[in-house]
Amino acid sequence: MDTPSVKQIICIKWGTFYNARYVNTLYGMIARNISGAFTLTCFTDDTTDIRKEVNCLPLPELRCSIPPEIPGKWRKTALWGAELFGMKGVALFIDLDSIIIGNIDDYFTFGEPDDVITVRNWVKPLRRLGQTTVFRFTIGQHAYMLDNLRADPERISRKYVWEQCYVTNGVRGGIKFWPSSWTRHFRVHCLPFWPLRYFKEPVFPKNAKIIACPGGPNPPDVIQGHWEAGGVYRPPWKHIRHVWENRDTLDRKWTLALKQFVRPTAWVAEHWREN
Question: What is each CA distance from 30 to 140, 206, 207, 238, 273, in whole angstroms?
Answer without folding.
Answer: 24, 18, 17, 37, 11
